[in-house]
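Appendix B, example 12.
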Amino acid sequence: MSIDLNEITALMHLASPALPIGGYSYSQGLEAAIDSRLVQDAPTAEAWIKDVFLGVFARSEAPLWLLSYEAWAIKDMSSVNDLNEYFLASRETSELRSETEQMGWSLLQIAQSLGWGGDRLSQLAAIKPLSLLAAHSYACFHLNVQAKNGLAAYAFSWIENQVSASLKAIPLGQVAGQQALTKIRLLVPKMVEEAEHRAKSGLLMIDNFSPMLAILSSRHETQYSRLFRS
């Protein structure tokens, strides 16, 4: 089976922690879970990340990413805009919304600087505010990355940022972090399958119900001592 090396290196580029979009500065509520003593060590950190990944990310953000990629592919800008607005509305706290807007804006700057998509960059730039989900799906399509692979890279970046946040905030050792990263990344195929199943029904099967995560994210906004912006 032939392997498209250009696609692989594009995926490595998008998933690299060196991509300057600021993901390292956010914890998406994990820091508040640590402050509340719900996450205290390697096993509880792994359980938390796994639960959010399969219970929230796979049921909402991932299928929305696939739908956004499809909309870019068929040049349906109305759907791209609707999905971007839907995703932003699903961010339940100001921190979570600010996070995806800041990272989306940063990825837009990279896409413009590197010419990803040529003339169609103006369509991406016209989306205001722009979510990371819309910008990332755009980048994957215009770099000729297959939808499944692009979503896997998007998911791996999310997992890696969560593990990195737990290393700093608990803190965990590097070996414990790598063990958690390995276990959770092996769930990516299951997540992609779930996302594809939900995306087939459009928005009917998008489920972002996660009250504990929303409460903790809200608490983080006024948390006395913190390392992260969310």
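The mean pLDDT is 93. The radius of gyration is 17 Å.
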